[in-house]
Structures are given as structure tokens and as C-alpha cells.
Amino acid sequence: MISPDHVRLMAQYNRWQNRSLYGAANTLDEAARRADRGAFFKSIHTTLAHILWGDEAWMSRLAGRPFPDGKGLEADYLETRDWETLNRDRAAFDAWLIDWAAGLTTADIEPDLHWTSSTGKGRFVTPRWVCLTHLFNHQTHHRGQVHAMLTAAGAKPEDTDIPFMPDAPWK
């Protein structure tokens, strides 16, 4: 099982990495961000939009936030959020996630979560700590895709290694 400190660390890492990727993506023009680069969600823009959609969906289950509109698995839907809004929404969500994680206790992450798949796979009962692990793993998986697309487009994201995270709690 993970600890509340692990959730806090990963929330901080999430914000650092999102700032890095969005900062690198901001050096590209709109056409470069929306170009189909052969990734699962096609473009830098739609992959970043999917990550945010997934975060919003999981935190609706875990923290009672509203479930996001639209279908986060459909690239056409993911194209609808404009770049400025995506940047703003990402930064606001990351700040909220850090604040939310700051108040977590072990008792908050131990119970089971009863949830319904947004992909139609049914209802599930899963320990909350497993769902939180998935939240952060899902982010990392797709951010790796974005990192590769940004690098191929000539943009330069920051390091991704947790030990190099600025403002880390152990520094």
C-alpha cells in the first residue's frame, strides 16, 4: 500500500512535469501541437487533454469533483478544448490536487472505492490506494508519449527523474 506522503510526492511531481511539458509545448505553434504524430491520441494537444480528462474523471470518483464533460478517449472530443483553456485548466487542477493531497491521511486511502468505468466495462470495487496509484501511473504513461512527441518536434522538456525535482520535500 502507498502512504499519504507518496500521494503528496506524486502530486508535486505531476505539477512539475506538467509545467515542463506545457512549457515546451508553448514553444511550438498551434499546428505543431495539433499535428498527428502517430501516438494513440494522435497529437501533443489531444494527449495532454486526455491526461487532464483522466485526472478529472478519477478525482470525481476519489474526491467528489464533477465528472468531466465529453469522452476522454475520443481524439475528436479532445480537440475541442483550446490551448489557452487547456493550460489554465491543467494549472488549476494541479494546484487543487496538491492542496487535496496535503490533507490526506492513511484512513482516507485505505477504504475500497465503488466506481463505474467510463469505458463501459462495468462497476468495480477497488482499494482507493490502487486507484491513486493508477492515477499517477496513467499520467506518467501518457506524459512519456508527449515527451517523445515534443522531442521529435524540436521542443525540449525538462528532466523527468523524481530525484531532480525542484522543491522536493527532502531538499
From TrEMBL:
Molecular function as annotated in GO: metal ion binding
Residues at which a divalent metal cation binds: 50, 138, 142
Pfam family, one: DinB
Keywords: Metal-binding
Presence of the UniProt keyword Metal-binding in the record: yes
Record-stated family: Belongs to the DinB family.
Name of the protein in its database record: Damage-inducible protein DinB
Organism annotation: Maricaulis virginensis
Organism classification: Bacteria, Pseudomonadati, Pseudomonadota, Alphaproteobacteria, Maricaulales
